[in-house]
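Amino Acid Chain and Its Fold in Token Form
===========================================
Structure side: the spatial fold of the chain, written down as a series of whole-number tokens.
Position: the record begins directly beneath this header, with no further notes in between.
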Amino acid sequence: MSDSDQERQGFGEGIESSQGDPRVLLVMNAVLSILFAWMVIWGLSFLDIVQFGIVNVATAAILLFTMTYVVTMA
């Protein structure tokens, strides 16, 4: 085996054994939930289904964050 093959195996093993930092996952979940909630509420307000507002965006983001958290931690 060449050195590059050994490096690839070592890198793959490192990735498989890494749990990652859960704070990074929570922050990514929060940011993506807020952005997605903003897009959904904006689209629904464009169709005159709901009113665009910070309360509606925050509520949708909290619901989305909670759902994704429960699904990923199960």
Notes: Residues 22-46 form the longest helix (25 residues). The radius of gyration is 19 Å. The chain has one domain: 20-73.
